[in-house]
Amino acid sequence: xxxxxxxxxxxxxxxxxxxxxxxxxxxxxxxxxxxxxxxxxxxxxxxxxxxxxxxxxxxxxxxxxxxxxxxxxxxxxxxxxxxxxxxxxxxxxxxxxxxxxxxxxxxxxxxxxxxxxxxxxxxxxxxxxxxxxxxxxxxxxxxxxxxxxxxxxxxxxxxxxxxxxxxxxxxxxxxxxxxxxxxxxxxxxxxxxxxxxxxxxxxxxxxxxxxxxxxxxxxxxxxxxxxxxxxxxxxxxxxxxxxxxxxxxxxxxxxxxxxxxxxxxxxxxxxxxxxxxxxxxxxxxxxxxxxxxxxxxxxxxxxxxxxxxxxxxxxxxx
Length: 318
Prior knowledge:
This protein has six helices and 23 strands. The chain is of the alpha+beta class.
C-alpha cells in the first residue's frame, strides 16, 4: 500500500523516505546513484568496421534461402558491438542485395533513408514516388521521410548496396509510421538522372576532381551531397590523398563511413581499424578519429550533424 501524505511527511530517515518513494515511482534527484547530467558524452557506442566481403557472402547465401516474397527486404543490419540494434545512437546501416529479375515491394515510412550502391550492373534501380532511378556503383539514392520507394533489378547480376537510415532517432522520438504500398509495386516512370533523389557517381567524381584542383595540397577534399540531403542526415564524399592523414578531430555528431574506393585505416581514440572497398566504419559521438590511406581512397560519409545543429547541440574539438 502506498504511503499517505502524512506518512511521507513523518519519514524518520532517508532510508525510510526512499522506501516510501519507490512504490509511487519517484526517485530522489539528489541521490548520486541516478545522475541525469554528466560532464561530456558517455561514448556508449563503439567504433567498429563491418566487412563487405563477409556481408556479400552472407547475402549470396540468403539469396538461395529467402526470396522477396518472404522478406520485405533482404538485408543485414550492422549492429554496434556495444548495443542490440543500432549502428550508432541515431543511425542504423545495413547491407542489402537484390537478385536479377527480382522486385522489392514498395512502402513508405517516417524514417529518412538513403542507399550507397557498392556493386551493380545496368538494370538495377530504385523507384522513389514513381520515378525510376538507376543504381550504379558509387551512386547515392535518397528515400526521404514518407516517400514511396521500392527496388528492382532487370540486369543480369546481383546488386548490392548500403542502406543508411535514421530509424534509431525516430524510435527515440516515437513518430514511427510505416505503410505498405496499396498496389504492392508503384507505377514507374523513367526519368533522366537529374532527380534531387539521385547523386550519380559520374557527377560526384567530377566534383571531387574539381575540389582537388583547388585544394592547395590539403590532406583530403570533401564535397557535400545536398544542403543537407536529408533533414536529419548530411551526406558527403571524401577523397583522401595518397600517403596523407586527416587532422585529428571529434564532434558530438555520429558518423557512418562507406568505403567507395581504395583501402586505408581509421584510428578512433587510439584504436586503428583497417578497411577496404565496400566496408563500413562507424565513428560514434565524441570520439577522436583520423583517416589515412597509403594509395588514396574515397569515403562516403553520413552524419546526424543536421540534428545536432538544429537543436543547438553541435560541438567540435581536436
